[in-house]
Amino acid sequence: MSQQALDLRKSMQIVRQHKVLMAILVALGILGGAAYAVLKPPLVSSSALIALPAASSQLATTAGGSGTSSTVDPFTATQEVVADSYRVLADALPDVRPAMSLIQLRHYVQVGSPSTDIISVTAEGKNAADAEATANAVAGSYIRYVGSAASAVGRIQAHLLAPAINATTPSKVKYTTICALLGGLAGALVGLILALAIGRSDRRLRQRDEIANSIGIPVLASVAVGHPSTAAAWTKLIEDYRPTAGQSWQLRTALQQLGIPRPGFDRPAYDDGGGTPYDDRASARTSSSLAVISLSSDPRALALGPQLAVFAASRGIPTSLVIGPQHNADTTAALRIACSVPLPQASKQHGMLRLAAYDEGGVDVPPDTALVVVVVVVDSRTPEMPDNVRTGATVLGVTAGAATAEQLARTALAAAADGREISGILVADPLEADETTGRIPRLAPSAAPRLPNRLRGVRTEIRR
Hints:
Blueprint: H1 2-17, H2 19-39, E1 44-51, H3 54-64, H4 74-83, H5 86-92, H6 102-108, E2 109-115, E3 118-125, H7 128-146, E4 159-162, H8 172-201, H9 208-215, E5 219-223, H10 231-240, H11 245-257, E6 268-269, E7 278-279, E8 288-295, H12 304-314, E9 319-323, H13 333-339, E10 353-357, E11 371-378, E12 393-399, H14 405-417, E13 422-428
Parallel strand pairs: 5-13, 8-11, 8-12, 9-10, 9-11, 12-13
Antiparallel strand pairs: 1-3, 1-4, 2-3, 6-7
């Protein structure tokens, strides 16, 4: 049962991951059902009533047994079979409208019995005239047949009680609604099958634990990212990025786990006596550097590095965002253009965030920089580290559902071959339904002795 529950949960997760596909197929099914209702409107039905001899019916009922109203009349049942027989329907074909085959006529005609001495012949057609003509043709053929000497059930004096003259048409709104609902249900079923088929064969990692377990490195933070595609959009992201409280806490925790210097390095502090201000950056003699590696097939993860740099600058850490040479220059072309122009003085990040882009040689980092964030993009098929700025720490940026375990492992191997050890993973656009943590690293245990949580052998009452 537990295995079935896990499979059901995984199946529901796969369906939620492909909710766009499901919505499209359901919408197409509804539209298809509505179109079917318009192109093939509901058929019109009309009924003709035939009266049977009352004496014969009563005699058959008495001979049949109890004679109660709930007992099926064998005589009437026999006449229903005769009215729907091959001989009767074949003789009615010349008068049926429109002309059709015997098989089609059998499909459009139904025979029933509203009472023990009456049978009904109901016919369907595209319009009232066709339905009425078909019902009357079958009723007339039955009356002629049972009244002739060739009748297989004996000669019976049946007569037409009520001809088919009042055709009824189903409600078009109700018919269209039913067709649309059936089409939507069919679309949902097809979408469910396709989603499960795609999800079962999809090897891309979507949950934080899956991403962390693929290379044995914990997820330090998972945040929503922007999706800029032009230089102007990148500039707007760098100038206006404002993470939520939850995202700010995750980014702050990630910087802490990576050993990034504490915020406030550029803020002057005053002593209690109101003396000359001093700059506590003097305590930070060396700057920290961080490389954020992402895959060329994962363009959304490219925003992790810039957003992390903007956040660090907003926390009072003088930060430089560096875009160096890449093996695939097209991936970072728009970001490189945005980083080639310094931030305007009116920008909220002016003075705290520096932008730099270079192709050859080195990059000049201001001496008061406390953090350098380097954006690195590697080929997802054959990852190879470009000749970029050497950093003290390296993290891997990946979007949920954008990379496989094999791709992440190849990237980690390429980083290790270049002398870079990946310290953590940043996840972009995590799934809303992901309840995993990504193997959060445990903090170092406290050096203080633990207090007892239960006292044993100690009296808590004093008796006098």
